[in-house]
Design goal:
This protein is mainly alpha-helical. The protein has 13 helices and no strands. Helix 2 runs parallel beside helix 6. The structure holds zinc ion (ZN) (2 copies). The site of one zinc ion has 4 residues, from loops.
């Protein structure tokens, strides 16, 4: 594996500590109880996913990236662009693909079963950025595995993308009362809290929008960008998974396999 493979995890851990502190000091929703229990559950999923990815996905991704680089395979290797431009194009291509994948997670029933674990969090905060079912993580690892040779992406470019994307996703899930002016500046380029909170709404008409991950312009291009004009706080979660049994780690892990009327 690449020497800098630890970078995304390090960035995540530092960003998380900073945002958890800000959430205590300047919370957007300040009526939250049992924050520690909520964080422990979400972070247990994250640790499980780190372990599974290190075991089942990372070695294959490193191998295919080595193969791609050695043979100069894939779209980006067909163009002879300066390295900085190649890296910028790679970041844009990865982010565009993840935007499309996120739309598919909402539109394809099988994928939604896994993705709804992320959406069933009624108390969204920075730890929600780590609340993904292991099945969804493995599916997105398979997408990365296919994307590397097709687009001609290097492991270094993937690490740069993830080191940029992870702080942004922690930030836009956080329960911090950021000034509207800061949010407005931020959402001109990347996905801000005001944008992503709408995506976590209980109202499907709002959930079906704001799928972008890092850059906010994919939603504007795809016609899926939406903001709340009145600034009312968003009610997060999924009614069918509100009960305590679905919020425990065991419930989170079994959520994809439940038949619910939704
Ligand atoms: Zn989603
Ligand atoms: Zn989210």
């Amino acid at each position: 594996m690449n020497d800098h493979a630890y970078l995304p995890t390090l960035v995540t851990a530092c960003g998380l500590i900073l945002l958890l502190t800000l959430e205590s000091w300047l919370p957007a929703a300040d009526n939250r109880r049992r924050r520690l229990r909520h964080a422990t559950r979400n972070l247990t999923l994250w640790l499980l996913n780190l372990f599974v990815v290190a075991l089942l996905a990372a070695p294959f991704i490193a191998n295919v990236a080595g193969w791609t680089e050695e043979r100069r395979f894939g779209l980006l290797n067909l163009m002879s662009l300066p390295p900085v431009i190649t890296t910028l194009v790679a970041i844009l291509l990865i982010d565009c693909l993840l935007y499309l994948m996120h739309r598919a997670n909402h539109k394809i029933g099988f994928l939604w079963r896994f993705h709804r674990v992320h959406h069933s969090d009624a108390e969204m905060d920075a730890t929600t950025a780590m609340r993904f079912h292991t099945g969804e993580i493995l599916i997105s690892s398979a997408l990365r595995f296919a994307m590397i040779p097709l687009l001609g992406i290097t492991l270094w470019q993937l690490l740069v993308y993830e080191s940029l994307m992870l702080p942004v996703i922690l930030f836009h899930h956080s329960n911090v009362n950021f000034p509207e002016k800061l949010d407005r500046w931020m959402r001109a380029l990347v996905v801000s809290p005001a944008v992503h909170r709408v995506h976590h709404s209980r109202a499907q008409v709002e959930t079906d929008s704001n799928y972008s991950i890092l850059f906010s312009f994919w939603d504007r291009i795809g016609g899926t960008f939406q903001l709340r004009k009145d600034g009312r706080p968003v009610d997060f979660g999924l009614a069918e998974f509100d009960s305590e049994e679905w919020q425990r780690v065991s419930g989170l892990l079994t959520t994809p396999f439940q038949i619910v009327n939704s």
